[in-house]
Design brief:
The protein is mostly helical. Helix content is 70%, strand content 0%. The chain has helices at 8-12, 23-49, 56-63, 67-74, 77-97, 105-122, 124-131, 142-151, 153-164, 174-193, 200-219, 226-230. Helix 6 (105-122) crosses helix 7 (124-131) and helix 9 (153-164) packs across helix 10 (174-193). The longest helix has 27 residues, at 23-49. It starts with 7 loop residues before the first helix and ends with a helix.
Length: 231
């Protein structure tokens, strides 16, 4: 009798090198792929036409599908807005991560502040959706807020490290200082978007001056007391 040996490679054929998926796994993967395509379509509308143009009907038209499909994936417009919010957090994180590290903490803080300004200018529609109340019905939930904190992780680490090294006072909580910085910068950007600070150049000057004053105030504790030297 002739014996035929079957190698391991033969056992994999005809799906050699591919792991078999169950129907549920394949369906889940297809659903996730569809969600990503819908988010991409919504993001394109957001950037090209502004937050007010992002509606379930508009997204379905761009996708060439029924609104029922969008609703089945995101429940409502707010669910879609949340996903765009999280996409914005990724973009903001990328902008901040691209800032080169520096041993000069004060300068590094200024650089991070400038990166935040550039994010607001380059991704204005995302900024308005995330921080400008462009979607009145949408309020960031716990997941969205966690995305925000992840996005500004570099700023949190910088302030915390400077406090530990005595360059910034530790009398205030790190999160409180970060929130104070963030609120001030948001204020300037919102005033600019509202048309209160003139053109982009004038508003940018106000922004940089605000950033300078805050940074100098935060790091003032590390400067030597010249009056004590004279004594």
């Amino acid at each position: 009798m002739k014996v035929i040996l079957i190698s391991n490679e033969d056992k994999l054929s005809p799906s050699k090198g591919r792991a078999l998926k169950t129907y549920q796994q394949a369906r889940l993967q297809n659903t996730e792929n569809l969600r990503k395509l819908v988010i991409d379509a919504a993001a394109a509308i957001l950037q090209e036409e502004g937050p007010e143009a992002v509606t379930v009907r508009r997204v379905s038209q761009k996708m060439g599908c029924s609104t029922k499909i969008i609703y089945s994936l995101f429940v409502n417009k707010e669910g879609l807005a949340q996903q765009l919010y999280l996409e914005g957090c990724k973009l903001l994180a990328k902008c901040l991560e691209e800032v080169p590290p520096s041993s000069d903490f004060l300068q590094h803080l200024l650089d991070l502040g400038e990166a935040f300004w550039q994010f607001a200018q380059n991704y204005t529609s995302y900024y308005k959706l995330m921080f400008g109340g462009a979607f009145a019905e949408f309020k960031p939930d716990a997941e969205s807020m966690q995305g925000t904190m992840t996005a500004i992780h570099r700023l949190l680490i910088l302030i915390s490290t400077a406090q530990k090294q005595g360059q910034i006072s530790d009398q205030e909580e790190t999160e409180t200082l970060v929130s104070t910085i963030w609120a001030s910068l948001h204020g300037v950007i919102h005033l600019h978007m509202g048309g209160f600070l003139g053109d982009v150049k004038a508003a940018h000057n106000v922004y940089k001056q605000t950033m300078n004053l805050m940074s100098q105030s935060l790091f003032a504790v590390s400067k030597p007391d010249r009056g004590a030297d004279r004594g």
